[in-house]
Design brief:
Strand content: 15-25%
Helix content: 40-55%
CATH class of the largest domain: Alpha Beta
Number of domains: 2
Strand order of the largest sheet: 1-2-4-6-8-11
Number of strands: 11
Radius of gyration: 19 Å
Order of helices and strands: EEEHEEHHEEHEEHHEHEHHHH
Distance between the termini: 25 Å
Number of helices: 11
Structural class: alpha/beta
Largest sheet: 6 strands, mixed
CATH topology of the largest domain: 2-enoyl-CoA Hydratase, Chain A, domain 1
CATH architecture of the largest domain: Alpha-Beta Complex
């Protein structure tokens, strides 16, 4: 499937999902909103994807919302936003439901919605020179992309609230300290290290990863007893997979497990 604002390449179980409007700064514009919904659907339907590596081309990871696009239709903007968010949030939901873990490689500045997208990834690798900004309130906007959930999950509720209210711009080091970034790496080795992590995950027990990803979306939003039951049900489903059988046999036979994502 062809995309206007994205590239998708799948190699050895790793889907390389690349923001690809470099001349514009990879904005979250109408094309991106539509493409994210479509690519989420494609990834959800593919059986060969066992990890996703999210990255971007150009001097920015993403400048966030396309303010120039917003300015061209101020009177009709509320309705346009409702339309654009349909594709955007469909994509976010579909990515969140994948069995495949998502690794982000942040090589440069990421602003607004891009930070919400990154915060929803399972592992965030960030170059030392990158910056991460909560830019919404600078233009009088609130957030999207599930940012209130993903940022609060990573940073804690009060820290995420401050980040968004003040429109803070964090250095990569500050992002690491507050939990927004998982691994701070040299610019020159970022892509190599992030891809190595994605490959490692692509060779893991994909179905178990999916169960864990979904469990964490409800970990703090429902009662303890309900979460215990959900963990049991997830464990039962995982135990029925070929990968679980292989993992047990490999452990007993003292060899490295060869997971196939089934």
């Amino acid at each position: 499937m062809a995309y206007e604002s994205l590239q998708l390449q799948v190699t050895d179980g790793v889907a390389h999902l690349i923001l690809n409007q470099p001349k514009l700064g990879n904005p979250f514009n109408a094309a991106f909103c539509a493409d994210l919904g479509r690519v989420g659907g494609e990834l959800a339907g593919r059986k060969d994807v066992r990890a996703v590596l999210l990255k971007a081309n150009g001097d920015f990871f993403s400048v966030g919302g396309d303010v120039k696009m917003f300015s061209q239709s101020l009177d009709g903007l509320p309705n346009h936003i409702r339309e654009w968010a349909g594709g955007l949030h469909t994509g976010v939901q579909r990515l969140a439901r994948l069995d495949a873990p998502i690794v982000a490689a942040v090589h440069a500045t990421a602003m607004g919605g891009a930070v919400g997208l990154l915060a929803g990834c399972d592992l965030v690798y960030c170059a030392r020179s990158a910056k991460l900004g909560g830019a919404y309130t600078k233009i009088g906007y609130t957030c999207d992309m599930g940012a209130t959930f993903t940022l609060a999950s990573r940073m804690g509720l009060s820290r995420a609230r401050r980040f968004l209210l003040l429109g803070e711009v964090l250095s990569a080091e500050e992002g690491l300290q507050c939990g927004l970034v998982d691994y701070l790496v040299d610019d020159a080795t970022l892509q190599q290290e992030a891809e190595a992590a994605a490959v490692r995950l692509a060779n893991g027990p994909t179905r178990a990863y999916g169960e864990l990803r979904r469990l964490f979306t409800t970990a703090l939003s429902q009662g303890f007893e309900r979460q215990l039951e959900d963990e049991v049900q997830s464990l039962v489903r995982a135990a029925a997979t070929d990968d679980a059988r292989e993992g047990i046999l490999a452990f007993v036979e003292r060899r490295i497990a060869r997971f196939r994502g089934r």
